Each structure stands twice: as C-alpha cells, then as structure tokens.
C-alpha cells in the first residue's frame, strides 16, 4: 500500500468511526479519543487528517448530504407524478427526521451559534442544501413544463423550513405528526406555487 493509499484508508476509517460515534452519542459527548480508538488509530492520526471534531463532523454531514440528494434525484426520475409527494415525504422523514445524525446536528447548531467560523461553515452546508434542492426542482420543472411562481431557491427554502418545523416538533413529541402529513404539506406548497400546462 502506497503512502497516499494508507492516508486515504486512515481518513476513511476515521470518518466511518466518527459517524458511528456521533450517531450514538451526539456531537457534544463524542470525543476525538473515542473516534480515534474505535478506528484503531491514535490522536496523532486524527489530527493528521482533521483539524478538530467540527471538521470531521462537517465532512460527514457534507458527504451524507451529497448521498441523500443523489438518492432523491434518482427516485424522482423514476417515480410517476402521482407518487412524487409520497416519495419526497418518505425521503424527508428518513433524512431529516429519523437520520442517525439528527441529534448531533441539532447539538452542532447550538455550538456553532457561538463560533463565527463554525456558523459560516454550517451556513454553507445549509446553503448547499438549498442549492441542491433548487437544482433538482429546476430540472423537474423543465422536464415537465412546470412554471414556478417563485424562484426555485425560494421554493426550496420554504420546503426546507416546513420540514425543519416538522422535525423540531417530532423531536419533542414523536407522535405529534404522522409521516402521511408531510406529503400533504409538500403538495399544498406545490399546488399554491406552481403552474402546470393545460
């Protein structure tokens, strides 16, 4: 194994270990020591790959975001129009409500509020979420000859706020909202803010 391959392997194993630790303990209780130990490395190996706990967490969150949106884009392309909201509702519920890193991300947001550099990095991640959503939305509208009454990024921001609100309520009371309610909310937004060819 070359040095570059060894470094890539170390980084990959640290990321895998960190994802498990964050999912189990949340962001605050997770430690660099535990992440390193469970990956089979020392703290030195960790710091050779990541500046701090925030960097490895954001690396995981970014990779998960890319994977989740690629999954959604693939699903939308093969789903009949009448099932789109059900598919999106299931996806949102799985990725934003029941995802393994939900608790860690909530804790990270609180930490980032007091750290300008972390706040900027988290804002970039949130903006990427909007940008990916808007890109998919634009592609869908073009393929189906649909006109939005607001810019795609605005629509994506509204949907993100809707789903975030659902997620916050469910974090407090898991029975507050049924999974069927999310597709209803998405369809209401879509009906109000889109125009379809006659």
What's the short version?
The protein has 198 residues and is mainly alpha-helical. It contains nine helices and two strands; from the N terminus they run αααααααβααβ. The longest helix has 29 residues, at 116-144.
Describe the 3D structure:
This protein is an all-alpha fold and 198 residues long. Helix content is 79%, strand content 2%. The longest helix has 29 residues, at 116-144.
Strand portion, in percent? under 5%
Shape: elongated
Helix content: over 70%
User: What is the N-to-C order of secondary-structure elements (H for helix, E for strand)?
Assistant: HHHHHHHEHHE
- Please mark out the parts with pLDDT under 50 across 5 or more consecutive residues, or reply none: none
Average pLDDT confidence is 90
Number of strands: 2
Number of helices: 9
Taking all Cα atoms into account, the compactness measure Rg is 19 Å
| Distance between the amino and carboxyl termini | 61 Å
Q: What spatial order of strands do you see in the largest sheet?
A: 1-2
Largest sheet: 2 strands, antiparallel
Assembly classification: single chain
Which class best fits the helix and strand makeup?
mainly alpha
Architecture blueprint of SSEs:
Elements: H1 3-29, H2 32-39, H3 43-49, H4 53-78, H5 84-97, H6 102-113, H7 116-144, E1 147-148, H8 152-172, H9 181-193, E2 194-195
Antiparallel strand pairs: 1-2
Helix pairs in contact: 1-2, 1-4, 1-6, 4-5, 4-7, 5-8, 5-9, 6-7, 7-8, 8-9
